[in-house]
Automatic annotation (TrEMBL):
Protein name per UniProt: Potassium transporter TrkA
GO molecular function: monoatomic cation transmembrane transporter activity
Keyword Transmembrane: yes
Spans traversing the lipid bilayer: 12-33, 39-57, 69-90
GO biological process: potassium ion transport
The RCK C-terminal domain, residue ranges: 255-339
Entry-linked PROSITE patterns: RCK_C (PS51202), RCK_N (PS51201)
Keyword Transmembrane appears in the UniProt entry: yes
Length: 339
């Protein structure tokens, strides 16, 4: 990760580089004591430790004039280096960079192991709600946001996240866009959502992208940028309020099925694998209703056309998506049949 490399380079410059210089100076001191006053290796090493730690012990044996001069120069340089190393180490620990490096490495491993996850770009009110829904559905996701407060909020949670420019290609790659199933551009800024959508589509042409549009005129731009679906929160809210006002019972029924996790009835969608035995069979021939108990309510054809209220003679083709309703157990059976 680019961010990790920056942190590690900073760690090298702030801590390890002075430490390396201190070690070189210590070795030079050992060689100096052995050369000038004829100390043994052990005696010279002892003198270096005593000198650098400033404990004040007497020399192991008498020192010559040149030896004392060397010792004074050596202790001056060595003590300064020790103070620098300790100061840099404390600064790095207090600043939190060391903790961030460890967390980012752990997070990177988690992201690298993720497949078919979603990336949420923008963690405002809309992004929070999306994350909540994903959490309830046990869908893996990664968050990208440009606010530092996001880091403080998610630091203690086991959720991979990145704080920075969400339009950055590198940040999208760090979030595992190559292996992701989909991306939700939910930033407050329409401009950011357009750039995120454009970058995501280039990095992964097969990615399913849902983008938020704050203005009507932005919707077409998002579609041209590569968004598969464009959602306007204000338009959706108005539509839902109108439906609630005119058809409250029907709206409550659909909302309950879609958003309540403890019901015995749920809606799910399935796409047959290339080797599925269901391909080129009619619904009657597939035996879905009899074997699973789930009911197929819609078939989306590969062309994008929706076949509402499919009949027993409706054929299941390779690129079709089946929308079914049933209990969780029935839908699990259907998933095994379709796979």
């Amino acid at each position: 990760m680019k961010k990790n490399k920056i942190y590690e380079l900073r760690l090298w410059r702030q801590f390890f580089l002075p430490l390396l210089i201190l070690i070189v100076v210590a070795l030079f001191g050992v060689a100096g004591f052995m050369r000038i006053d004829g100390f043994s290796l052990l005696e010279a090493f002892y003198m270096v430790v005593v000198t650098l730690t400033t404990v004040g012990y007497r020399p192991v044996k008498g020192m010559s004039g040149p030896g004392m001069i060397f010792d004074m120069v050596f202790v001056s340089i060595g003590v300064i280096l020790i103070v620098v190393v300790i100061g840099r180490a404390m600064e790095f620990i207090v600043s939190g960079d060391f903790v961030r490096i460890r967390r980012n490495r752990r997070m990177t491993k988690k992201v690298e192991s993720m497949r078919n996850h979603f990336i949420i770009c923008g963690f405002g009110r809309v992004g929070h709600q999306i994350a909540s829904e994903f959490e309830a559905a046990r869908i893996n996701y990664v968050i990208i946001d440009n606010k530092q407060e996001t880091s403080a909020e998610l630091e203690m949670k086991d959720i991979p996240y990145f704080v920075g420019d969400m339009t950055s290609d590198q940040l999208l790659l760090d979030a595992g866009i190559k292996s992701a199933k989909g991306l939700v551009a939910a930033a407050d800024s329409d401009t950011d959502n357009v750039f995120v959508t454009l970058s995501a589509r280039v990095l992964n042409p097969k990615l399913f992208i849902i983008a938020r549009a704050g203005k009507v005129e932005t919707e077409e731009k998002l579609r041209k940028a590569g968004a598969d679906r464009v959602i306007s929160p204000y338009f959706m809210a108005g539509k839902q309020m109108a439906a609630l006002a005119t058809k409250p019972t029907a709206y409550d029924f659909v909302d309950t099925i879609m958003h309540h996790n403890h019901l015995q009835v749920a809606i799910a969608e399935f796409r047959p694998d290339p080797g599925s035995k269901m391909i080129n069979k009619t619904l009657k021939e597939s035996g879905i209703r009899q074997a699973s108990g789930a009911y197929v309510v819609t078939i989306k054809k590969g062309s994008g056309k929706l076949e509402m209220q499919p009949t027993a003679g409706s054929k299941i083709e390779l690129e079709d998506t089946l929308v079914a309703i049933g209990t969780p157990e029935q839908l699990k059976k259907l998933e095994k049949m379709i796979g």
